[in-house]
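User: Quick one: structure for sequence A, then sequence B.

Assistant: Sequence A:
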Amino acid sequence: MTQNSRPVVLVFAGNDPTGGAGIQADIETLTSLGCPPAPVITALTVQDTVGVKHFLPVEAGMVIAQARAVLEDMPVAAFKAGMLGSAENAT
């Protein structure tokens, strides 16, 4: 990493369709800090601005495949975990 580059952050989070939380909020925050986000979707949610109504975890194998593709391609310097969706996604 050069002095002028920012760390790539691998982000594990669910998708919030309102954009107030989850992967979209993480992407916006990291981008505002100048850090390139590398998002891994862990769950799909049904929610509004008040709360989560329902969620569907992404299969653990797909979460691993997303993360592996990023890790094999980019110099990830940090990890950020949000909603993981299931116990299997946490291991």
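Sequence B:
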Amino acid sequence: SRRRDAGGAAVKRVLLLGATGAFGARLAEGLVRVGIGVVAVARGAPALAALAARLGPAVTPLAMDRARLDAARLRALGAQHDLFAIADASGPFQDRPPDLPRAAIAAGLHWVDLSDARDWVAGIGALDAPARQAGVAVLAGASSTPALSHAVLDRITEGARAIHVIEVAISPGNRAPRGEAVMRAILSRAGQPIRVFRGGRWTAAPGEI
């Protein structure tokens, strides 16, 4: 059934993947705060129940693995819950194929993710043409890096006549919760070659922790 606001209008809903994680729970809270309903997806039913109890009736818990989601399942969920978009905070995105955003496009749902995986964000442009054809938006990298860090850079470099060096780094704070996805993402790059700009040219260097 469709949940309606005080004025009788149907409430917009987002399918939120990884809803009980360190970032997903905060995103769920923010969506509810601005009047958007959340169909919260995660594997752990107890954590989902706790999230729904904390945030109220705007949250519908749905315990399932994201691997079960394909275009047909997303279409069914979209019709059942009045969805207009998918937000993926489930991570890690490293070495993951873009099957879910492709399925979202096929289901006619907008897509946004909290990825900070370079290859994932760089490769999402391949979905631009099918997304435009379907009339939906596909947005990748709406995370601390690259989205927030580049928003800050745009602000502090406004009006600059020249930019010589920009360095951006990200690490979990000592007091911040460290979810499984965050740790898997960090550890997956240990010792792996990464593309860096040094001495005026691009080169490969091993990732370090």
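The first helix runs from residue 22 to 33. Residues 40 and 61 are 5 Å apart (CA to CA).

User: Thanks, that's what I needed.
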